[in-house]
Design goal:
2 domains, single chain, about 200 residues, Rossmann fold, Protoporphyrinogen_IX_DH, FMN binding, menaquinone-dependent protoporphyrinogen oxidase activity, Protoporphyrinogen oxidase, alpha/beta
């Protein structure tokens, strides 16, 4: 049986966390599933919605905090996710929210690459009306062996621009799982404090 964590203060209470994500190549689903397991391991209750499968967001009184995760594809986030967040923005804004962008730009040493992702998140918020209180830029994956010819060519170019690998004979995963976990755990633990400011 898993040991129960001792909670030192109310900000470490068990939380109901809603995760909403969209994926095109599968890495953000892996991130959503991973975060669900991590937060459950911390004693929280977690439900996850894959926006590419369902567009139903539960009422605000069923969750205490929301984490939205989305990959960057050709300079923007998937339209399925933009639609679900826009439709539920009022509900989601009733609770503290965190946004996790998933991209190749996150592997770059050039800070302007992350600034670009920051601009995309801002455009996403302007479009949807949902503003996260916390943002994390996670590195995604390169699945060269699964792409068709055009995607492989395109991703090789993007990867070269970010200083990433261009050997297309194998796949690469760049997601820094411990950093991602630390971000999510800290956000959820601070959510009760943040909720008081909404
Ligand atoms: C067709 C395509 C376009 C992409 N465009 C970008 C891009 O413009 N900027 C970027 O930083 N990463 C880009 N990426 C990298 C993805 O963000 C990365 O592979 C991520 O892990 C994909 O997440 P997913 O598997 O959940 O779809 C692109 C990937 C693909 C396949």
């Amino acid at each position: 049986m898993r040991a129960t964590r001792q909670h030192a203060s109310t900000s470490e209470a068990t939380m109901n966390v809603l995760i909403i994500y969209a994926t095109i190549e599968g890495q953000t689903r892996k991130i959503g599933d991973h975060l669900k397991a991590t937060l459950e391991g911390e004693g929280h209750r977690v439900s996850a919605i894959d926006a590419t499968v369902s567009q139903d967001v539960p009422a605000a009184d069923t969750f205490d905090a929301v984490i939205v995760a989305a990959p960057v594809h050709a300079g923007t986030f998937p339209s399925t996710l933009r639609r679900i967040i826009k439709g539920a923005a009022k509900t989601l804004m009733a609770r503290p929210g965190a946004f996790i962008s998933v991209s190749l730009s996150a592997i770059s040493d050039d800070p302007s690459e992350l600034d670009e992702i920051g601009d995309m998140v801002e455009a996403f918020s302007n479009e949807t009306g949902w503003w996260p209180v916390s943002i994390h830029h996670a590195a995604g994956a390169l699945k060269y062996t699964e792409y068709d010819f055009f995607r492989r060519w395109m991703l090789k170019r993007i990867s070269a621009k970010e200083g990433g690998p261009t050997d297309t004979s194998r796949d690469y995963e760049f997601t820094a799982w411990p950093k991602l976990d630390a971000f999510a755990i800290e956000f959820v633990e601070q959510a009760p404090v943040l909720a008081g400011k909404i």
